[in-house]
Amino acid sequence: MTLRGKVNGRGASLLVGIDIGGTFTDFVVRDERSRTLLVGKVPSRPGAEWEAVLQGLDALQVDLTRVRRVIHATTIGTNIILERKGARAALLTTEGFRDVIEIGRCQRLIPGSLFHIKFVRPKPLIPRSRRFEVRERMLKDGTVATPLTEAALEEVAVALAAAEPEAVAVCFLHSYANPAHERLARTFLARRFPASHLSTSHEVVGEFREFERFSSTIMNASVAPGTSRYLTRLEAALVERGYRARLQIMASNGGTMTPEAASRLAVRTILSGPVGGVNGAVHVAAGAGFRNLITYDMGGTSTDVCLIQDGRAGTVGWSLLDGYPVKIAQLNINTVGAGGGSLARCDEAGLLRVGPESAGAVPGPACYGKGGTEPTVTDANLVLGRLDATRLLGGRLQLRPDVAEAALGRLAQALGRMAIPKLADGILRIGVAKMASAIREISVERGHDPREFVLVPFGGAGPMHAAFVAEELGIDRILVPRHPGNLSAFGLLVSDLIQDRTETWIVPLEAVSRQALQARWDALRQTLREAIQADGWGPGPILFRYALDLRYRGQAFELTLPLTRPDQPMREIEAAFHKAHEQTYGHSSPGEAVELIALRASAVRTVLKPPADRLPRVTRAGVRPSGERPVFFGGKFLRTRLYDREALGAGARIRGPAIIEELGATTVVPPRWQVEVGRTGHILMSR
Question: Is residue 479 in some structural domain?
């Protein structure tokens, strides 16, 4: 553990951000009184994540009695699904709909699977033997066709008890239109199975489309017990150490949740860490004068990218997690299996392949010296000189170039005696191509030119590869924030409180009156106010945001269109939809009827953002290199100057090739690139 800055002053108010990653757990501690910052890292502990959190707090000597707020991003729910370690869950559903989650939409949803002749769909998280039907039926307009009776619930309870479920997902047909039956079932099950976690689909996803709603609810039932146990244990440990405020959990929608809400609706935390990074990048870029950017978060296991337009990240209503649909409001983040720990292997055809498998935190890349034997992206960077073997990675880990070279040597033999530097360079080129492809998906494929955006790299490995990714995309400007290896943890400190709600309302847009729409907005605002009160936000101003889901009549899926105000004229809404459709799909049909599908409303309580600290202006002595070493660029090793980022003042200018080193990250400046340090300490790279 290494720290930067010093927290002092008795009674100072501290803010703590904690982000659990696949390889490291990151910490940021902000002293609001002295305006100082601590950053630190400890290795993550899969299966015992809370121990890494406490270890990091202890290593930074954080006095929890002086902490005003702890914000936490967790990957617990994501890892539970990826590792198939979910709770023993059961499903209670409408008679005749037991196999909805098995049938799905008869589509191959996973990218790249359409022409895969050996493709096998992911098995449902709840096997058929633990899926039970009950006699009840609700129509799509909320009318009761078949009432749910206590006798029907008693009958199914016998079989349900024999399944010994740790969690139960209740998914009834059309419960989004009328949740009365699900509420009745929940009350009954809470009485009969008090130890089981209960997930009702109208609470998890109050929207139409049964398959996606059922899938999301089942996923929630699978991850909620484990998430709840983790948060309960962590909260108790923090309280024992003197923490008296409420722990806040990062949610996928860009806001924070209470531990109670995160335990009940754990599926809403699956993008917890990446969202914190996006919020941090937006905050830093705004301070540097940029509002259109592409965030690029490269960690040890994966890379997450997000497009930011006019200072706001786009949101989506659903995504895939390991092949399972998740229908929740979330920032539009695209993830690719390429990180510092991505394994390089020789495939069946004798070709080099990189990822998506990762060395993870244990054993980690070969150069960690913890038992890893296969080469990774990190090993390739080390043998090419882009990482310094004499510096401690993350402030505590000594790298082993000899072990990295041995691992690469074995792979080189398998590939036909390839030269190790050439192999390492090939590994990085493949990784860069995969990451650039992920950015094209959120930019080019959605009507945006990446050359018009600033690339903001962060994570432990982001600044190391940013210039090469930018060259692949034609991007000319890169903004490297301060403490990029801890930006996701810092982003937690600037994340607002957010509650969101959705109401399905399928009606031709031309038939919607301003009065009817306003009445529904009023009802959604009231629902949000009640949720805010339940979460204990306290008094303060609340900003409401509005959006509509729209589509052309007859289309299968819709676009989410943000509104400038809730009473925006219908003609403006329709014109904006045509424009959005043109930008997204490359065509529009202005004469065709538009259909309203759903209303989306969010309540936002902004938090006070830490002001950016300003660096002293540079002197000539402030841009002297700390040393030099050979680094591989363009097919050969070049003598490359090294710089300590902490020693660079505002206004410092550096021309590539150069390496800028700091705790938790390394910025690689290739030939033909130059660097200028901004007033607030960010690095602006340009070609």
Answer: no
How far is it, in rounded angstroms, from Cα 499 to Cα 495? 13
**Per-residue pLDDT at 110:** 66
3-state secondary structure 468-525: HHHHHHCCCEEEECCCHHHHHHHHHHCCCEEEEEEEEEEEEHHHCCHHHHHHHHHHHH
Q: Phi first, then psi: what are they for 266, rounded to 5°?
A: -65, -25
Mean pLDDT in the chain? Answer: 90
Do residues 165 and 258 share a domain?
Answer: no
Count H helices and E strands in the chain, helices first.
16, 37
Query: Which token pair is 397?
Result: 């880990």
Q: How confident is the model at residue 355 (pLDDT cuts 50, 70, 90)?
A: confident
- Count other Cβ atoms within 10 Å, centred on residue 101: 24
Give me the torsion for CA of 184, 217, 494, 452, rounded to 10°.
-140
Residue 39 in contact with residue 3, Cβ under 8 Å?
yes
Position 620 scores a pLDDT of 60
Using 50, 70 and 90 to split pLDDT, how confident is the model at 65?
very high
- What is the Cα 350 distance to its own chain's centre? 34
The pLDDT, as a whole number, for residue 318 is 80
Taking only the tens place, the pLDDT of each residue in 211-240 is 999 999 999 999 999 999 999 999 999 999
Q: What angle do CA 136, 137, 143 make, to 5 degrees?
A: 130
For residue 557, tell me if it sits in a domain. Answer: yes
Same domain? 59 vs 149: no
- The whole domain housing 217 covers 86-225
Tell me which of 202, 225, 248 is where a domain ends.
225
Q: Judge if 91 and 59 occupy the same domain.
A: no
**What residues form DSSP beta bridges with 87?**
none
What global pTM score does this model have?
A: 0.87
**Element spanning 134, H or E:** strand 131-134
Co-location of 179 and 237 in the same domain:
no
Q: Contact, 238 vs 58, CB < 8 A?
A: no
| Cα dihedral sign, 109-110-113-117 | negative
pLDDT of residue 613: 77
Amino acid type, 639: R
Distance CA 257, CA 605 (A): 12
- Per the structure, how many domains does the chain have? 4
Point out which residues pair with 25 in neighbouring strands: 20, 42
Query: Looking at residue 237, which CATH number applies to its domain?
Result: 3.30.420.40
Q: Tell me, what DSSP letter sits at residue 614?
A: P
Residue 471 has which token pair?
């060259």
Task: Report whether 622 contacts 638 (CB < 8 A).
Answer: no
Please spell the DSSP secondary structure of 643-656, one letter per residue. Answer: EEGGGPPBT-EEES
What are the φ and ψ backbone dihedral angles of 686, each rounded to 5 degrees?
-145, 155
Structure tokens, 444: 């080019």
Q: Count how many Cα atoms sit within 13 Å of the Cα of residue 156 in the half-sphere of its side chain.
A: 23
Residues with Cβ within 8 Å of residue 643, at least 6 apart in sequence: 623, 625, 626, 654, 658, 659, 660, 661
Contacts of 353 (CB under 8 A, 6+ apart): 344, 345, 346, 347, 430
Ramachandran class of 536: left when φ > 0, alpha when ψ lies in -120 to 50, beta otherwise: left
- Residue 319 in any domain: the answer is no
Last residue of a domain, one of 237, 269, 301: 269
- Answer yes or no: do 162 and 220 share one domain: yes
Of residues 652, 659, 658, the one with CA closest to residue 623: 652
Q: Does 396 map to a domain?
A: no
Q: Above pLDDT 70, what percent of the chain?
A: 96
| β-pair type (454-458, 293-298) | parallel
Residues 94 and 199 occupy one common structural domain: yes
